[in-house]
Amino acid sequence: MSELTPETHVIDFRAAETLLAARDPRGAIALLDSVITAHPENTAARLLRARAFFAAALLRPAELEFQLVLEREPDNAFAHFALARTLERGSRDAEALRHFRLAAALDPRPDFVAAARFGERS
After folding, report:
1. Do you know which Gene3D superfamilies this protein is assigned to (predicted)?
2. Are 36 and 28 in contact (CB under 8 A)?
3. 47, 79 in Cβ contact below 8 A?
4. Total H helices, total E strands in the chain
5. Could you tell me if 121 and 97 are in contact, meaning their C-beta atoms sit under 8 angstroms apart?
6. Closest C-alpha to 13, from 45, 54, 52
7. Which helix or strand (DSSP H or E) is residue 68 part of?
8. Coil, strand or helix at 120
9. Using one digit for the tens of pLDDT, what is the confidence trace for 36-80?
10. I need a labelling partner for 108 at 20 to 30 A (CA). Which of 42, 78, 83, 119 fits?
11. pTM of the predicted protein model
C-alpha cells in the first residue's frame, strides 16, 4: 500500500467532492474516512462527510458530524441548515426548526428564511 501524504489527502478530498456530486455518497465517505483520520481538525472534510452521510440516508452519523462542525463553527449557517434537514428527515421537527431559524438568522438566504417559518409559532 502506498504511503498517505498531505497531497494524497487533498486528492481524496477533491475526489470525494466529485463522488458526492455524482451521487455516490458512500464512495465519498470511504475516501473521507482516511482524510479525517489523518486530519481530525479539518472542518471542511467533516462537513463534506456529513453531507455524504445525509445523502446516503445515514442520519445519525450525519447528525453527529454536523454537530461536531457546529461545535467548532457555531456561526456556520449551512451546517445549521443541513443539521435541520437531517433532523427533519428523522421526524424531529421541533429540533429542526431551531436550526432552520439559526441558519436564517446567520445568513438570510431565501431558502434558509423560508425553511425557518418565522411567521409560525415554534
Report:
1. Tetratricopeptide repeat domain
2. no
3. yes
4. 7, 0
5. no
6. 45
7. helix 59-72
8. coil
9. 999 999 999 999 999 999 999 999 999 999 999 999 999 999 999
10. 42
11. 0.91
Give the DSSP letter of residue 4. Answer: P
Q: What is the spatial distance between Cα 103 and Cα 67, in angstroms, rounded to a whole number?
A: 13
**Residue the block writes with cell 449551512:** 78
Nearest to 93 by CA among 117, 57, 72, 61: 117
Q: Which grid cell is 77?
A: 449557517
- d(C-alpha 7, C-alpha 54), whole Å: 27
**Residues whose CB is less than 8 angstroms from the CB of residue 74 and which lie 6 or more positions away in sequence, other chains included:** none
Q: Cβ(117)–Cβ(97) under 8 Å?
A: yes
Residue that the C-alpha cell 464512495 belongs to: 27
User: pLDDT tens, 7-27?
Assistant: 899 999 999 999 999 999 999
